[in-house]
Design a protein that fits this description.
Elements (H helix, E strand, L loop, with lengths): L2 H6 L4 E10 L2 E11 L4 E5 L6 H8 L7 E6 L2 E2 L4 H7 E4 L11 H12 L4 H10 L13 H13 L5 E5 L7 H16 L3 E6 L2 H4 L5 E6 L2 E7 H7 L1 E8 L5 H6 L4 E6 L2 E7 L3 H10 L2 E8 L2 H8 L26
Parallel strand pairs: 3-8, 3-9, 6-7, 7-8
Antiparallel strand pairs: 1-2, 1-4, 4-5, 9-10, 11-13, 11-14, 12-13
Helix pairs in contact: 5-6
The chain binds adenosine-5'-triphosphate.
Adenosine-5'-triphosphate (ATP) binds next to strand 2 and helix 2.
């Protein structure tokens, strides 16, 4: 069976009990995760958490101590050559040939893959505002990053593995990169996108996972997280304060009446009912703001932003949804 035919049949990424020890140090501990076609998975964690180790296992650059990593149905370690052919990879520190220009890098990668991807590469480079005529040694950090992105996406791979790909890239170009990623997933492609912060991946990720000290401690659909997010609502009334009406709306919590000002926290699902109550009264001032997603996510899983895990998941912001990973 040809590699392409073999690739067609399987899910994109499957990690099963994946563990990697370096001597006594367990860099990755029993990680199980599936990434499906068309999905962008945001892989988050602080320095030294195990993100790069996961990616290197996935790319067949490291041999697992136990467990397995498979990519498009291929064993990442035993079939690493086929994996490399099928995956577009942007490493944290792109390895480029100093003397070669962008065009020469593109030609070299086309040659390695026995296909001509020059036209699409030139198009992606133009969108990222990257000059392919310059030798790599003259490129700034951000432009090196852009060239690595061009080389990763040019063959239109089924899977992109991106190790902090936008860390040196300015916000406007990040948006272009996000739209390239969306086109990739619209065509059924998948991506594993690692980052230190949720902000970097929240616009493009379908799911996010957090790795801490080698363990996958949380996996969540961004859509579900957003639906559970709490909004701070505050309204000042000229006339009667509809406190009883507010209290009766499911999900409303921390209700407080201070003179003619009413405030509470409410899930997204309660906002429509609250707005109708507010608009039925005589309003002098109104405010509704969403808690930052990162704060919510970390708080829900009892994780502090600095990286250490607290004793138990906090119930205060996230209601009753269960902790799940997979
Ligand atoms: N080749 C190696 N030999 C020994 N220990 C290693 C090796 N590679 C990684 N480690 C250790 O494994 C752990 C996880 O490192 P890893 O590079 O995967 O983290 P990371 O999440 O990618 O961090 P960063 O965001 O800083 O890149 C760390 O404790 C690191 O010191």
């Amino acid at each position: 069976m040809s590699p392409e035919a073999r690739l067609g049949a399987e899910s994109t990424v499957q990690l099963a009990g994946l563990t990697k020890r370096f001597g006594r140090n367990t860099a990755l501990d029993d990680v199980t995760l599936t990434i499906g076609p068309g999905e962008v998975f945001g892989y988050l964690g602080p320095n030294g958490a195990g993100k790069t180790t996961t990616i290197r296992l996935l790319m067949g650059m490291l041999r697992p101590t136990s467990g397995t990593a498979s990519v498009l149905g291929l064993d990442a370690w035993r079939q690493s050559r086929d994996v490399h052919r099928a995956v577009g990879y942007v490493p944290g520190e792109p390895a480029l040939y100093d003397r070669l220009t962008g065009h020469q890098h593109v030609a070299y990668c086309s040659h390695l893959r026995h296909r001509d991807d020059g036209q699409w590469a030139a198009e992606v480079a133009a969108r990222l505002d990257l000059d392919l005529g310059k030798p790599a040694r003259t490129l700034s950090r951000g432009n090196r990053q852009k060239l690595a992105v061009v080389l990763a996406v040019m063959s239109r791979p089924r899977l992109l593995v991106l190790d902090e790909p936008t860390s040196g890239i300015d916000p406007l170009v990040q948006q272009v990169f996000h739209s390239i990623l969306r086109e990739h997933t619209a065509d059924g492609g998948s991506a594993l996108f690692s980052s230190h912060v949720l902000g970097e991946v929240e616009r493009v990720a379908d799911r996010i996972g957090v790795v801490r000290a080698g363990k996958l401690v949380a996996v969540e659909r961004l859509q579900d997280l957003a639906a559970r997010s709490l909004h701070r609502v505050r309204a000042r009334f000229a006339g009667e304060v509809p406190a009883a009406g507010f209290a009766a709306v499911p999900g409303v919590r921390d209700l407080l009446v201070d003179g003619r000002t009413l405030s509470c926290n409410a899930p997204q699902s309660a906002l429509d009912a609250l707005l109708k109550l507010v608009s039925a009264g005589e309003v002098e001032d109104f405010e509704c703001s969403e808690a930052p997603l990162e704060e919510m996510f970390l708080s829900y899983y009892g994780l502090d932003p600095a990286g250490s895990a607290a004793a138990s998941p906090s119930e205060s912001v996230a209601g009753t949804a269960a902790h799940h990973a997979g």
